[in-house]
Amino acid sequence: MSLTKLLVKKALDPNYLNLILFPTERCNFRCIYCYENYQMGGMTSEIVASIKKLISVRVPDLKKLEISWFGGEPLLKKDIIREISCHIIDLTQECSDLKYGANITTNGYFLDTITFQELVSLGINTYQISLDGDYEVHNQTRKRADGKGTFNTIWRNLLAIRDTDYPAHIILRVHFSPDTWTQLSPLIEMINTELIDDGRFYVYFKSISRLGGENDENLSIFSDQDEGKVIQILQEQVKNSQQLETVDINQYICYASKGNSLAIRANGDIIKCTVALDSPKNKIGHLNLDGTVEIERELFLPWLKGLEIGDQKIMACPWYNYVKNS
Question: Transmembrane residues, as ranges (predicted)?
């Protein structure tokens, strides 16, 4: 079986479930390229209870459960993360064959060592934290909601995490644009000096994109071809190539293309893509209070088009092909 066929098989495996959970859609940051509107608050206790019921029903049939915490800023609702994670851990005691893993996309502002230690104990072992440059560059694009800078707090948290021995896979997602990529050397040097020798930290370079935010028309972006060239230049500055996080686009299947991956928004809406939040094509169903889900087949199946026809480009980004360009 070819690698692509194996990946497609895994993307449809009924024994695997990936739930992307939005404990809140509010955020303490206002990044200039963000596409979210921050209007939806946190999950209610009823939605949290429904998610726990859904997981309880599905777990006996699963071999692997993966939870992805997203937002907004998920650490604004640590209590929800704690409650659902503890429920899952209790279930793993009853289902010894179940493999459980979790990851979180966070801006890193609230990721102090106490929080980090608790999250690791809850099975959250992969972290993605964005940086846009050193102090001067980052604070121009990733500001707090009150306009103040965020770099120093994030960097202080990263150094404190480095000084712990808790196991984790920490991805530093370094954003760049045509305006900023030549200014990343100071940040890369800081990473080389302070973090890269710790085997838990990895560097992933990604150019910013126009994803539907209110500031899209003011964003300067790269073409796909130019982005690849710049990434190669930046990667060469990282002193340990083993600590580079890379994606082989020819073997990549986006979570939104997978039949066994669902995202649950803070209000219980079920979607496929974490970018096209307000697109009617993205809302494919709803989570009921009893933990059952209602999925509209005619809205769900188009997201699997890439798997159906074997189109690698669509599998890599169904949003671009189904929502943005249709």
Answer: none
Answer yes or no: is pLDDT of 268 > 60. Answer: yes
Count CB-CB contacts under 10 A for residue 150: 22
- Report how far residue 212's alpha carbon sits from residue 168's, in angstroms, rounded to the nearest whole number: 32
Q: Is the preceding peptide bond at 133 cis, omega within 30 degrees of 0?
A: no
Residue extents of the structural domains in the chain: 3-324
- Backbone φ/ψ region at 129: left (φ over 0), alpha (ψ -120 to 50), beta: beta
> What Cα–Cα distance (Å) separates residue 304 from each residue in 70, 209, 284?
22, 23, 12
Q: Quote the pTM value.
A: 0.96
Instruction: Give the 3-state secondary structure of residue 267.
Output: coil
Q: In this structure, which topology does domain 3-324 adopt according to CATH?
A: TIM Barrel (3.20.20)
Coil, strand or helix: which one is 30? strand
Q: Is 292 helix (H, G, I), strand (E, B) or coil?
A: coil
Give the pLDDT band of residue 1 (cuts 50, 70, 90).
low
- Compute the Cα dihedral for 95, 98, 99, 100 and give only its sign: negative
Provide the residue type at 73 as one letter: E
Distances (CA, A) of 83 to 37, 71, 193, 228: 26, 17, 37, 41
Distance between CA 294 and CA 19 in Å, rounded? 15
Distance CA 156, CA 92 (A): 34
Interatomic CA distance for residues 87 and 94, integer angstroms: 11
Token pair for 294: 């209602």
Q: Tens digit of pLDDT for each residue in 11-31?
A: 999 999 999 999 999 999 999
Determine contact, residues 86/122, Cβ cutoff 8 Å.
yes
Q: How many CB atoms lie within 10 A of CB 160?
A: 14
CA-based radius of gyration for the chain? 19
In whole angstroms, give the CA distance from residue 109 to residue 309. 42
Q: What backbone phi and psi angles, to 5 degrees, belong to 105?
A: -100, 115
